[in-house]
From TrEMBL:
Residues reported to bind Mg(2+): N7, E34, D147, N149, D247, H248
Molecular function terms, GO-annotated: double-stranded DNA 3'-5' DNA exonuclease activity; metal ion binding
Protein name: Exodeoxyribonuclease III
Cofactor-binding details, from the entry: Probably binds two magnesium or manganese ions per subunit.
Family to which the UniProt record says this protein belongs: Belongs to the DNA repair enzymes AP/ExoA family.
Residue numbers marked as site, Interaction with DNA substrate: H248
Site feature: Important for catalytic activity: D218
Active site: Y106, D147, H248
Key words of the record: Hydrolase, Magnesium, Manganese, Metal-binding
Pfam families in the record: Exo_endo_phos
């Protein structure tokens, strides 16, 4: 089973590129972030036409997440990260598909830091850890994917100096991510690429793509039940270089049935 993640940076603006990627790679599950549309504006029919069922959690102009499943609908799903009933941002959705629990998230960016946005990021990560601990305790085969907006290690960025003051690389962000891993999750891309140098994001500015000035913030975490089934993980880097592409490249993990 191939489970993929793609920060699409506006589903309407990138729809041709998204459908192109789906046709070429055909993941069983495709998790999308930053769909940037309200629920009623989500183009579900576009995916039904090519054999994908969709669930989504939208928000006007910002954020928003969706999960596409190939051929069959999800068995069950829920929207929103528990722990703060006043949080109205659409950043979290989860479902069950063919015996695997799939969590799709768009973690807050946190810039500028310090400040309320960075505080919100860290609080969100605490809530995420609580939810993921529940899934670990239930011993459910689980894959957690998405844009985590965390650069875990120096080897995951083209220039440590250039990103030193960014919320993505602050010690507090890295520590919160490390605590997730220490609970028992396996970072699929990081595990298979221990030397680093694998990017998932290149900014639109300053020729970042052309100069390969990127970093890794799109992650795939596996519960122990899924880590034992890990076959491969990678980045569809070539799709970042296409016309009107997202500033992220799709990432994917492959599990044995």
């Amino acid at each position: 089973m191939r489970i993929a993640s793609f920060n699409i940076n506006g589903i309407k603006a990138r729809l041709p590129r998204l459908k192109e990627w789906l046709a070429e790679t055909r993941p069983a599950v495709a998790c999308l972030q930053e769909i940037k549309t309200q629920d009623e504006g989500f183009p579900a029919a576009e995916f039904e036409d090519i054999g994908y069922h969709a669930i989504w959690h939208g928000q006007k102009s910002f954020n928003g997440v969706a999960i596409l499943t190939d051929g069959e609908a999800t068995e069950d799903h829920s929207k929103g990260l528990p722990g703060d009933p006043e949080d109205e941002q659409s950043r979290f959705i989860e479902c069950d598909f063919h015996g695997v629990h799939v969590v799709n998230l768009y973690l807050p960016n946190g810039n500028p830091q310090p400040g309320p946005k960075f505080d919100y990021k860290l609080a969100w990560m605490d809530r995420l850890r609580t939810r993921l601990k529940e899934l670990l305790a239930a011993e459910i085969p689980t894959v957690v994917v998405g844009d985590f907006n965390v650069i875990p290690y120096d080897r995951d960025v083209w220039s440590v100096r250039a990103m030193a003051n960014d919320a993505l690389m602050q010690p507090e962000s890295r520590d919160a991510y490390a605590r997730l891993l220490n609970d028992g999750w396996t970072d699929a891309l990081g595990t298979l690429n221990p030397r680093g140098g694998v990017w998932t994001y290149w900014d639109y500015q300053a020729g970042a793509w052309q100069r390969d000035h990127g970093f890794r913030i799109d992650h795939m975490l596996l519960s122990p039940e899924c880590a034992d089934r890990l076959v491969a993980a990678g980045v569809d880097k070539e799709h970042r270089g296409r016309e009107k592409a997202s500033d992220h490249a799709p990432v994917w993990v492959e599990l044995r049935d």
